[in-house]
Structure formats: C-alpha cells, structure tokens
Amino acid sequence: MRAHRQGFSLVELLAVVAIMSILATIGLPLMELSQRRTQEEDLRRSLREIRSALDQYKQLVDTGRISQQAGGSGYPPSLEVLSQGVVDAQSPQAAKIYLLRQLPRDPMAPADQAAANTWAPRSYASPPDEPQPGQDVFDVHSKSSAVGLNGVPYAQW
C-alpha cells in the first residue's frame, strides 16, 4: 500500500500563485480608482465649504455685521479669517463670528503644508480666466496640476 501524502505539489502551488497574481492585478487599479474618487469627493466638499463661507462673509459685510475697509470688496483678506473669526460690529462685547470651525485642506496637496497654503486664492479684481491672488479672497481653487477623472484639471474646479 502506498502511504497517503501530506501537503501540496509544486504544480498546485504554482496554480494558486498564478490565480492570486491575476486577482491582484485586477484589484489594485480598482483600489487606486476608489482612493482617487474619495479624494475628489473631499475636494468638492472642501471647495463647497470654503466658497459657502466666503459668500457668508460677504453677506455679513453687506448687512453691516462685519466692518469693511473703505474701497474694499467686502470679501475676507485671507482664508485664515474664516476660521480665526472676525469681530461682530453689532456686538457690544465685540464677540467674534466664526464662519468655519477649521479651514479644510486641499486633499490633492502634500500633507506637510498648512491648510491655508494648500489653496490658490483668487482676488475679486482678478478675471475668472486668469485667477490671481490679491488684497482679498473672492474664490479658491486647487494648486494641483493633475487632471480629475472627469477630464477637468483640479485647478479649474
């Protein structure tokens, strides 16, 4: 009688390794695509949050809750003002108005940069087709030169 063998043969092991490598080849690009979609969702959410806070700041200036410099546009001088707070002109205690709890980071930027440095600001005096920083922050866009999954560069979102 022949003794019963324990373990796997070399052919069986090679077949399993080949199948696993095929599955990994299929899975890695899908994982990278999923991660990029998540980053793009974070970018959309962050842009929406900052732009909403910029609009709210302008509305508060227009209603007199935030004092405006003579000849100013009514938009904040920097992104940091949105989270650091600005003095309420109608408050006798000089309370601050906070428009953001925390300034969101650009998810496409390197992790070692401060949140305010990850965004490229656009001044009110700057044309939309050639955004430039200035004395105020009218809008923001990503500094990333990469192109989104939809074919539009992140800097144009």
What does this entry look like structurally?
The chain is mainly alpha-helical. About 35% of the residues lie in helices and about 10% in strands. The protein has helices at about 10-60, 80-85; strands spanning about 85, 95, 120, 140. The strands form two sheets. A two-stranded antiparallel sheet has the order 1-2. It has a two-stranded antiparallel sheet with strand order 3-4. The relative contact order is 0.13.
Secondary-structure map:
Blueprint: H1 10-62, H2 80-84, E1 86-87, E2 96-97, E3 119-122, E4 139-142
Antiparallel strand pairs: 1-2, 3-4
Helix content: 25-40%
What sequence of helices (H) and strands (E) makes up the elements?
A: HHEEEE
Largest sheet: 2 strands, antiparallel
Poorly predicted residue ranges: none
Overall geometry:
elongated
State the helix count: 2
Strand content: 5-15%
Cα distance spanning the termini: 75 Å
Mean of the pLDDT scores? 91
Features:
mainly alpha, single chain, 157 residues, two-stranded antiparallel ribbon, 2 helices
What's the short story on this structure?
The chain is mainly alpha-helical. 37% of the residues lie in helices and 8% in strands.
